[in-house]
Every structure is written in structure tokens, then in C-alpha cells.
Amino acid sequence: MFTSNPFAELSASIAPSVMQSYIVVMILLVALGTIYDVLHKKSARYFRANMQKSRAEGTKVGGGEMLSIAIRTAVVDVAASGEFCNPRRRIAHLLTMYGFIAFALTTAIMVFRYPTPDVATPAILVQLWWLGAAMVCIGGYWFWFFIRADVAAEGSSPFRVMRADLFILSLLASATLALVWAYLQATGNAWATSAFWLHVLATTLLFGSVPWSKFAHMFFKPAAAFEKRISAANGTRSNLPAPANQPEKFGSVDHRPRNY
After folding, report:
1. Is residue 168 within 8 Å of 140, Cβ to Cβ?
2. Rg of the chain over CA atoms, in angstroms?
3. Helix, strand, or coil here: 207?
4. What is each CA distance from 193 to 9, 18, 105, 124, in whole angstroms?
5. Which of 45, 70, 64, 59 is nearest to 228 (CA)?
6. Taking the CB of residue 161, how many other CB atoms lie within 10 A of it?
7. How far does CA 216 lie from the centroid of its chain?
8. 99 vs 105: CA distance, rounded Å
């Protein structure tokens, strides 16, 4: 089960070209949804205006320092999710993020490069697919039931759902149903077909709901983190919170709000 490409087995009932076309459509939905989100929320305009203001009002940041800031942003804020000070939240986020990357990439590789049983799929690729989907489930369910602020701190029910939860719920449904489908297909269970189409439905919701979910945030957050570091470097931070690896320190003046 952990060495057999589930998409190759599926090719007996669904043509590889259909599966490949579906993935292309999902990629286009993400791209178009992100562009719409940027235009609707004017995110690009905000970052451009803020960067121009920083250059005009702050001290000049040299090319070497700019490169150093870009590297620190990529390593600390993106790769290590340095924005999360809570270690449990950071671990859950990293599990979900890297699990999703592995799950999505191996799916695309298996569908495009190894679409039928005639082309042997490397076992490591299939195992990474299983591992990626499992990591999404571990990180996602851990966050949903034990780490969410309204559940952990406010005592709300973990089954309370709002529109902001669309991304994480559709992601969890996609990964969970993928594992269920692959298992049922490998064991010859008659419910495998139903599980597969439910997986397709959840995946379509995940990638098709970009304008209304938090999916596009994964593209905005690196830009926001980079802008924060640039503003801190040229002295025009404008009350933005400090980067996670440079926590705010109270000086001689107490900047904390009253009634704290």
C-alpha cells in the first residue's frame, strides 16, 4: 500500500489526461484567485506604497543588507515560521505547511510522470505522498482541536465553524479523504470510488475558494515579513510589530496600553 501509486491504479477507470487536466485547472484557480484577492484587497498597492514611504523617509538600506534581510526572511519567517512565538502553534503550522508541500508536489509528479502502472513509480515518492498527507492531518487536527485561540483560550466548541475556517477545513478534508481513498483502493474496498470523488470535491473547494479563504495568505505573509524587516532596518517601522526573532523590548518609556 505504501509503495503503490494510487493514481496509477486509478488510470484503469479515469484517463491520465483527465487527471492531469484537473491539476492544471486547480493551479489556474489558485493563480486567478490570488490575483483577484490582491486586486480586491489592494494588498500589492499597500506593500508598494509602504515600501516607497520607507525609502523616502528612512535611512538608505544597501544592497548587501537588503540581500541579508531577504535571506533572513526566507529562513526565519518562511521556512521556520518565525512569526509564531507559541512553540506548539509553530510546530503544528510547520507540520501542516511542509506536509501540504510534500502532498501537493508528489501528487503532481505521480499524475504527470507516472500516470499508469506501465511506468514504475519510485517507492519513496509514494511514501512521501502518504507522509505529506499524514503531516497535514496531524498538524491540522492538532491545531483545530487543541490550539485555536477560541478553543484553547476561550473555551468555545471545536466544532464551531466560521467562514475564516474554510481553508483549514477544506485542506484537512482533502488530505484525510486522500488517505482514506488510497487505503480503500489498496484493500479493494467498494467504497474507494466514493471516497475518491469526495476527495476531489474537497480539493476543488480548497483551490477554488482562494478569494474567500486564507489560502492566499501564504503568498502575502512573506511580503509582509520582508516589509517589516526593511522598515526596522531603515527606522520607519511605524508601530508595526517587531519580527518574531527580535521581540519588542520596553525601554525607559512604558509603551504598554493602559488597563493591561
Report:
1. yes
2. 22
3. helix
4. 12, 16, 23, 25
5. 70
6. 10
7. 9
8. 10
Grid cell locating 37: 484577492
Model confidence pLDDT, tens digit, residues 10-61: 999 999 999 999 999 999 999 998 888 877 776 666 666 666 665 665 566 6
Q: Which CATH class is domain 6-56+91-234?
A: mainly alpha
- Residue given cell 512565538 in the structure block: 85
Tally the residues of the chain: 260
Give Cα 127 to chain centroid, integer Å.
21
Domain ranges of the chain: 6-56+91-234
Which residue has 519567517 as its cell numbers?
77
> Residue 133 CB: number of other CB atoms within 10 A?
25
| Gap between the Cα atoms of 46 and 109, Å rounded | 36
Our measurement of the distance from residue 107's CA atom to the centroid of its chain's CA atoms, rounded to an integer in Å, reads 16
Q: 154: which residues sit within 8 A by CB, 6+ positions away? A: none
CA–CA dist 43, 39 (Å, integer)? 7
Count of beta carbons in the 10 Å neighbourhood of residue 215: 23
- Walking along the chain (260 residues) 10 residues at a time, the average pLDDT comes out as 92 96 96 84 64 62 79 85 84 95 97 94 97 98 86 71 87 98 95 97 95 76 75 64 50 37
